[in-house]
Amino acid sequence: MERILKVDLSQKINDYGTIFNNKYKKINISKISVNNIKKEFNKKGILLFRNFDFNIQNIGQFTDKFTIAYANDALRRKKRFNKDNIRNVDSGNQKIDLHSEASFSPSTPEIIWFICKRPPNKKGGETTICDGVKLWDSLELSTKNFFLRNLIKYKLSIPFVNNNKNNSRKEWYLPHPGVENCLIDFGKSKIEFNYYKYAVNKVRFQNRLSFANHLIVTLKSEPQMLSRTLSNDKKIPAKIMNEIKSKLENFTYRHNWKKNDLLMIDNNRFLHGREKVSTNDIRDIVVMQTLRANF
């Protein structure tokens, strides 16, 4: 009887991750037990579904099985297939540094779904994935204690779709712990506020911590993030940031895409990014974001 092969994704990942490989392309993804996927995800934090014949316009029927609510993705990313919750990844060929999606904001998604419609033809364009658990475990004790006691302060300006015709600017309310000085500016169609958050997260249903955040990317790469400091407005010491950057490579896996690959990633555990795409090459990756999981 034909079956789905279940193998490790990468030794650079704690618990290795899991590939569900439909090697003989004869099994529908709906035949995999949802409970088994949830159990595997809670343990591994990253799953790859390969060789399944996805209908990209109906992929939500699968992701809905794990989702209470989807995140509102950045407005700069274009909608795909006329679906509000399916978007392009960031455009361009430039390298994108490791980060946890929207981890600078109160709307950090729990699960990121990447679906490959067209892999790169040339070398380059791999998605980089770093295990925040392994990275955290590798840090010096003094560095761990630094991040356990220090909040990060993000100064944000978030664009929104504005149907209000006045140009007023007034105090606003966002019901999230860590929000400070929140204002809505209808003239600029932006909500502006400070947001305080720790750079380390608890891992789902496990007694582990993960270093998954928005500290490594440049401010230039994220236009919603105006500044990033400690809560006392001081910079993170260069010695600490140099230690983190020097250890990233040890725990970073580069995913070489194949058509119809679907990656399911715990966004509070893993950082992701992109290697530079070769000049004149085209890759087509779309993304969905589960704001709140149902498990």
What does this protein structure show overall?
- This protein has 295 residues and is an alpha+beta fold.
- It is built from 5 helices and 20 strands.
- Strands 1, 2, 3, 4, 5, 6, 8, 18 and 20 form a 9-stranded mixed β-sheet that branches. The chain has a 5-stranded antiparallel β-sheet with strand order 11-12-13-10-16, with no helix packed on it. Strands 7-19-9-17 form a 4-stranded antiparallel β-sheet.
- β11 and β12 (179-185) form a beta hairpin.
- The radius of gyration is 20 Å and the shape is globular.
- The model has no long low-confidence stretch (mean pLDDT 94).
| Coarse structural class | alpha+beta
In round numbers, the mean pLDDT is 94
Helical content (DSSP H or I, runs of 4+): 10-25%
Please summarize the sheet with the most strands.
9 strands, mixed
Radius of gyration: 20 Å
- Beta-strand proportion: 25-35%
Gap from first CA to last CA: 31 Å
Principal-axis shape: globular
* Uncertain parts: none
Query: Can you count the helices?
Result: 5
Order of helices and strands: EEHEHEEEEEEHHEEEEEEEHEEEE
| E-strand count | 20
How does the SSE layout of this entry go?
Blueprint: E1 5-8, E2 18-21, H1 34-44, E3 46-50, H2 60-63, E4 67-70, E5 79-80, E6 83-88, E7 96-99, E8 111-118, E9 127-131, H3 132-138, H4 141-149, E10 152-159, E11 169-171, E12 179-185, E13 190-197, E14 201-202, E15 209-210, E16 225-230, H5 238-248, E17 252-255, E18 262-266, E19 270-274, E20 284-293
Parallel strand pairs: 2-3
Antiparallel strand pairs: 1-2, 3-18, 4-20, 5-6, 6-20, 7-19, 8-18, 8-20, 9-17, 9-19, 10-13, 10-16, 11-12, 12-13, 14-15
